[in-house]
Structure formats: structure tokens, C-alpha cells
């Protein structure tokens, strides 16, 4: 039997609630499919761990995670501990330490969900955003000087490397080529940023020549926001820098109906290290402990994880179950305008998996 070793890091806030839900769906799937097994090892890292031990994760954390096939991650962030400690102490060290340079974010309007765009009711919006996840504006380059004085200065330097841009462009072209429309939009800002972004455009054009069957167009990031709203059907696969894609993918999630349904994979395409799968939302302090967090993003990211592990049949079975239950408004959590609990949606998905053929 095929066995996959999964590291589970629920971390903070609703991360704990949605990962518990996701694991139930994974167990139902294993029982229903019967041809693969997953072992789960839980890591208690996060803000509570920080309160107790003064660190977000153990010093040998990355070393211990290395032996897993994938990481199933909840969300990190705490109302009183700064994000510079929480995010930079757990999520970012994993992304950077494991060189998960491609952040993949599919967006669709699931059956039964309502997009805030009145001309969209499903098929018009079916995108995958590829976010450069290792450098760019979030490279961490910069500094502060003369703190507290009137002449204080802070810099935040975006870093683009030929290696980094080439590999993300190649990944995005390959992904676009694997989708029916073979359509890739390169997001840029080379009109105003004339060094790194111009290099970004040039490398995109070079890599594009390796993929003659992919149709490529180029959009400035500001105009891109308009196009996503006014003409969503004109887009399919999208590649953007770390910052641009961060912003565009929150817009994408909102256009698909809720932040609570958006999944993501932080992928090391070379497979040297485990990739990490998580819902795109954060720890949502405002609803933590209320039992109403939407687990759909976590189910969907679980399907991405299964695909990554080669369990395509199980991934499809899981998404079919999700798309079956979202059709019924009784399974919509409050973020989708309903009043279902996390537990109710989870039970519905597990039942749909058990009775799937
Ligand atoms: P957030 O995503 O936690 O919440 C934004 C809004 O969406 C809130 O009103 C929340 O209730 C709602 N929401 C999010 N996920 C939901 C779900 N599954 N079901 C129902 N409603 C949901 O973003 P926010 O409030 O900006 O950040 C809270 C903390 O999370 C911060 O510390 C932030 O840095 C962190 N964060 C962590 C991320 C990660 O771990 N990858 C990603 C985004 C934020
Ligand atoms: Mg974000």
C-alpha cells in the first residue's frame, strides 16, 4: 500500500479548527479509497508554543520536517504577538528553508456559492495564480537607521534574481500548458519600476519561447485588478511577484465568494523538500473558538496535497464531495451567508465521501 507521511501544523486561531476538520475528511477518504495510507505527526508549534518556550518552533524544526512527504498547515498569527515574530518565526522559515518557491492559488466559484460579481455564476471565473514565493518584495532586504529621530530612514528592497525569475516563469508556463486554455498572463509593473520588473518581463519573454503552445499576455498590476473584476473570463493562469500576487489573490478569493474557501500550496517543484499546503486565510481572531470557521479552503488544499502526492483519484473524490455539499445552502458557514457550523460542514463532506461511488 502507498503510504504518505504528513506533518500537521495547525498553529493558531481557527487554524486548529479547520485542520481538525481537514484531518477528518482525510480519514474518511483513506477508508473509502482503501489503496493508500497517510500517517500524521502533529507539531504543537505556534503562538501558544511561543508563550511557553519563547520560540515559534523548535530549533531543529526544519531538520525534523525534512523527512515528511508534505506539510498540512493551518494559520499563524496572534492578537498580541507581532506578525514579525509569528509569521517570521514559523511559516516563512518553512517556505524559505524548504525553497518552496512556487505558491499556487487556484480560484473558482464552487457550486452553490455566490460571487459578488453579478455577471459571474461559476465557469467565468476559473484561475490559478502562481506567486513567486522566495524573493521579490518579501526578500527581507532593507533596514532601519536613526530610529526615533526625525531623519529616521527605512528601506525595503525588492530582490529579483535571474535564477528566481526563470524558475517561477518556467513553472507558470508548465502549469498553463497543463490547463485546457493554455493561457498565461504575466503581471508586471515595468512602466514604473524600471530595473527588476524590466528584467522580469525580459525573462518571461525568454522562457515563453520554450512554450510555443502557451498564449501569453502581459498586464500592469493596477490594470490587472480592473480586468479581474470586469472581464474574469479572459484570464486563466496568472504569474506575479510575491507582493503583487499576495494582493491579487485576496481579491481573487473575495471574487470567488469568500476568503474561507481559498486554498494554496507552497511548492518545491524540484521535490527536494516537503511542500506545504494551507488555506490562504489567517488565524481569524474574530471568530476563533466559535465553531463557525469555514473548513472548505482546508479541504481544497488537502486535495491539492493529495494531487501533489500522486493520489489523483482521492483528490478528485474529495473535490467532488466538496462541490456536492456546497450546492446546499444548509452547508454554508456565516462567511458565505449561511449559519452552518464547522462541524456540520465537515460531517457533510465526510458523509459525501463515504457514499461516493
Ligand atoms: P484573516 O484571514 O485571519 O481574517 C480576515 C477575515 O476573514 C476575518 O473577518 C475572518 O473572520 C474571515 N475569515 C478568514 N478565514 C475564514 C474562514 N475559514 N471562515 C470564515 N471566515 C474567515 O486575516 P487577518 O484578520 O488580516 O489576520 C489575522 C492574523 O492571521 C494576522 O496575524 C495575520 O498576520 C495572520 N495571517 C496568517 C496567514 C497565514 O498563516 N498564512 C495568512 C493571512 C493572515
Ligand atoms: Mg496574503
UniProtKB/TrEMBL annotation:
Keyword Hydrolase (UniProt): no
Cofactors named for this entry: Mg(2+); K(+); Mn(2+)
GO molecular function: D-malate dehydrogenase (decarboxylating) (NAD+) activity; magnesium ion binding; NAD binding; tartrate decarboxylase activity; tartrate dehydrogenase activity
Matching PROSITE patterns: IDH_IMDH
Alphabetical keyword list: Lyase, Manganese, Metal-binding, NAD, Oxidoreductase
Catalytic activity: tartrate + NAD(+) = 2-hydroxy-3-oxosuccinate + NADH + H(+); (2R,3S)-tartrate + NAD(+) = 2-hydroxy-3-oxosuccinate + NADH + H(+); (2R,3R)-tartrate + NAD(+) = 2-hydroxy-3-oxosuccinate + NADH + H(+); (2R,3R)-tartrate + H(+) = (R)-glycerate + CO2
Superkingdom assignment: Bacteria
Domain Isopropylmalate dehydrogenase-like: 5-349
EC number: 1.1.1.83, 1.1.1.93, 4.1.1.73
Pathway the protein acts in: Carbohydrate acid metabolism; tartrate degradation; D-glycerate from L-tartrate: step 1/1; Carbohydrate acid metabolism; tartrate degradation; 2-hydroxy-3-oxosuccinate from L-tartrate: step 1/1; Carbohydrate acid metabolism; tartrate degradation; 2-hydroxy-3-oxosuccinate from meso-tartrate: step 1/1
Biological function: Has multiple catalytic activities. Apart from catalyzing the oxidation of (+)-tartrate to oxaloglycolate, also converts meso-tartrate to D-glycerate and catalyzes the oxidative decarboxylation of D-malate to pyruvate.
Similarity annotation: Belongs to the isocitrate and isopropylmalate dehydrogenases family.
PANTHER family given in the database record: D-MALATE DEHYDROGENASE [DECARBOXYLATING]
Protein name according to UniProt: D-malate dehydrogenase [decarboxylating]
Amino acid at each position: 500500500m502507498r503510504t504518505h507521511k504528513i506533518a500537521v501544523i495547525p498553529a493558531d486561531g481557527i487554524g486548529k479548527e479547520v485542520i481538525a476538520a481537514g484531518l477528518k475528511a482525510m480519514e474518511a477518504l483513506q477508508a473509502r479509497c482503501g489503496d493508500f495510507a497517510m500517517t500524521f505527526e502533529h507539531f504543537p508549534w505556534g503562538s501558544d508554543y511561543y508563550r511557553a518556550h519563547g520560540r515559534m518552533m523548535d530549533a531543529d524544526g526544519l531538520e525534523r520536517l525534512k523527512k515528511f512527504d508534505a506539510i498540512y498547515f493551518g494559520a499563524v498569527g496572534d492578537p498580541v504577538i507581532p506578525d514579525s515574530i509569528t509569521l517570521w518565526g514559523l511559516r516563512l522559515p518553512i517556505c524559505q528553508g524548504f525553497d518552496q518557491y512556487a505558491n499556487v492559488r487556484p480560484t473558482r466559484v464552487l457550486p452553490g456559492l455566490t460571487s459578488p460579481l453579478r455577471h459571474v455564476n461559476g465557469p467565468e471565473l476559473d484561475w490559478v495564480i502562481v506567486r513567486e514565493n522566495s524573493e521579490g518584495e518579501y526578500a527581507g532586504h532593507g533596514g532601519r537607521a536613526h530610529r526615533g529621530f526625525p531623519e529616521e530612514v527605512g528601506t525595503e528592497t525588492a530582490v529579483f534574481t535571474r535564477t528566481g525569475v526563470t524558475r517561477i516563469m518556467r513553472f507558470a508556463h508548465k502549469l498553463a500548458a497543463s490547463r485546457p486554455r493554455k493561457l498565461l498572463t504575466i503581471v508586471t509593473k515595468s512602466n514604473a519600476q524600471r530595473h527588476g520588473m524590466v528584467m522580469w518581463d525580459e525573462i518571461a519573454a525568454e522562457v515563453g519561447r520554450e512554450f510555443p503552445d502557451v498564449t501569453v499576455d502581459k498586464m500592469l498590476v493596477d490594470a490587472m485588478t480592473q480586468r479581474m473584476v470586469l472581464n474574469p473570463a479572459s484570464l486563466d493562469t496568472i504569474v506575479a511577484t510575491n507582493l503583487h500576487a499576495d494582493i491579487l489573490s485576496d481579491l481573487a478569493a473575495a471574487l470567488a465568494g469568500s476568503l474561507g474557501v481559498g486554498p494554496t500550496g507552497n511548492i518545491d517543484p524540484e521535490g527536494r523538500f516537503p511542500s506545504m499546503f494551507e488555506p490562504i486565510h489567517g488565524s481569524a481572531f474574530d471568530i476563533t473558538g466559535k465553531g463557525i470557521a469555514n473548513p472548505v479552503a482546508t479541504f481544497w488544499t488537502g486535495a491539492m496535497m493529495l494531487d501533489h502526492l500522486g493520489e489523483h483519484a482521492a483528490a478528485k473524490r474529495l473535490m467532488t464531495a466538496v462541490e456536492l455539499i456546497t450546492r446546499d445552502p444548509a452547508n454554508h458557514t456565516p462567511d458565505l451567508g449561511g449559519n452552518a457550523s464547522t462541524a456540520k460542514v465537515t460531517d457533510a463532506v465526510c458523509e459525501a465521501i463515504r457514499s461516493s461511488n
